[in-house]
Amino acid sequence: MGGLVQGLIGSGRARRAQRALERLQTPTTESDRGISDYYDMARNPTNSLEYQLAQRNANSGVAQGLQAFQDRRSGLVGIGGLIRQRNNMLLQAGASAQSRLGQATQMKAADNQRVWHINKYLPYEKQYNILAAKAGGANQLANAGFSNIFGGLQTAAMGRGGNDYFGKGTKNSPAGIPWDGADSVYG
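and the corresponding structure tokens:
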């Protein structure tokens, strides 16, 4: 009787704990806004501060060069070199911004992986662990049930055989001697 009460109390507590675990909210997260902004900015290198600064400096250099050439009256000869220098500065600034895009892409990929892990994988893992625990518990319950069935059958078979073997019948003792069970340590 005590085993039955213990089993009922234990199964009730286990079911309540299981329901609480199933209702437990898995934390979620969002992409890091700073990394997203950095990535978005790096995707368009002409919008970067570094590129705009390089463009302003290059244009300023061209303006100063043109002003210098105007004083010397040789503007047409040096304009090609000024424009070439400006274009080289802008190309270098663009290349620098492109390398920043590579860094930003790696950062964004790592952040996307972190968000996926928290928002998708952890809830899956939680559900997997709950189902695995349920399956394990069901297997233990089934094994215990089969054990109880076979244990009961074995006890019933021994009880029936024990009555004939050690009971009041006229069966032989373990030593093979006829015995009625009276005046015995077994009876």
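(Above: one complete record from the training split.) Residues 49 and 169 are 106 Å apart (CA to CA).
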